[in-house]
Amino acid sequence: MDNSPSLLALRLFVRVAMTGSFIEAARFFSLPASSVSRHIAALETQLGQRLLFRHTRAVRLTDAGERYYQDVKQILDNLELANEQVSGGASGPRGLLRINAPVAFGRRHIAPLLAALQSQYPFLNIELTLSDAFIDPVQEGADVVIRVGALRDSSLVARKLAPQRFFACAAPAYIEQHGAPAHPDQLAHHNCLVYKGTRGIQPWYFRQQAAPELFQRYDVKGNLYGNNAESLVEAALQGQGIVLFPTWLLYEALRERTLLPILTAFEASGEPTLEGIHVIYPENRLRSSKVAAFLQHLFEQIHERPYWDD
Predict the structure, then answer these.
(1) Domains present along the chain, CATH in parentheses
(2) Which of 4, 68, 107, 188 has its CA 20 to 30 A from that of 121?
(3) Where does the HTH lysR-type domain start and stop, copy by copy (predicted)?
């Protein structure tokens, strides 16, 4: 009798190890949590090793479990790539492509591109997850992650998709009532609509145009803070205050002049240094035809000078 672990048990174990949760693994594979627990218990019995420490609020790997996880994950990744390359050889990319992107950028600039890609490759399924949290694609099982802003040190592959340009702007009605600041110091006397995300309240940064010096930080204040950039832009459109965001978010309002740029003698930024938009993915995804197809499509649609900066 063959006592080798089942492929499902190995996949369940890897998912639990990645997320630290039996419930999340059960949700991911559409199984009852009790079934996940039984499969992993059977796996531990077959191996004669305890792989996981189970606690009320968390699950973590034992030393043996950590070693086993690294080896098994690599094997499963290679198996997935092998299956994809064989099955997609004649019909093009197929299978499930998991993409993670920030909420506003993903909704505006990633989601609209997918219909054409899937029309070209009808056997390609896509799972698009929009989140402003910084995720590790290896831990979350994503094939491709779009990152806006600073990159954390990582062994992942990163390709720059586009630069970012920032503008401070306000609605004509706000400027008519309150005037436009001539210098960033004067923002202290204006109502600034401020983004507050997972890293806290976002300061604003300015420097003289084309100046070599570093950006100067301004801790602006106002009567509205939010963790959704589009809601702050909407408030600005209603004349409530001033916002500072990149052109990929503001370009329609700037083009239609429903928001007007201010402080144009200064270069603006939402970070201490101007950071671009990057695509990141694990190195082994370079051999994936579905990742390659998506990246080619993405870079064809968003050029070195992206359409939102035209």
Answers:
(1) 7-86 (1.10.10.10), 92-163+275-309 (3.40.190.10), 166-269 (3.40.190.290)
(2) 107
(3) 5-62
Give the position of tokens 């035209």. 310
Tokens of 277: 């938009």
pTM beyond 0.85: the answer is no
Contact by Cβ (8 Å): 123, 163:
no
CB 78 within 8 Å of CB 285: no
Nearest to 167 by CA among 209, 120, 223: 209
What backbone torsions phi and psi does residue 108 show, to the nearest 5 degrees?
A: -85, -35
Give the pLDDT of the chain (310 residues) as one tens digit per residue: 456 678 888 889 888 888 888 888 888 888 888 888 899 888 988 888 899 988 767 788 898 888 888 888 878 777 777 666 666 555 678 888 999 999 999 999 999 999 999 999 998 999 999 988 877 776 677 889 999 988 776 678 889 999 999 999 999 999 999 999 999 999 999 999 999 987 889 999 999 876 667 899 999 999 999 999 999 999 999 999 999 999 999 999 999 999 999 999 999 999 988 889 999 988 776 778 889 899 999 999 997 779 998 7
How far apart (Å, rounded) are the C-alpha atoms in residues 254 and 261? 7
In whole angstroms, give the CA distance from residue 123 to residue 93.
7
Q: Is the dihedral angle over the CA atoms 205, 208, 210, 214 positive or is it negative? A: negative
**Torsion 12-13-19-23 (CA) sign:** positive
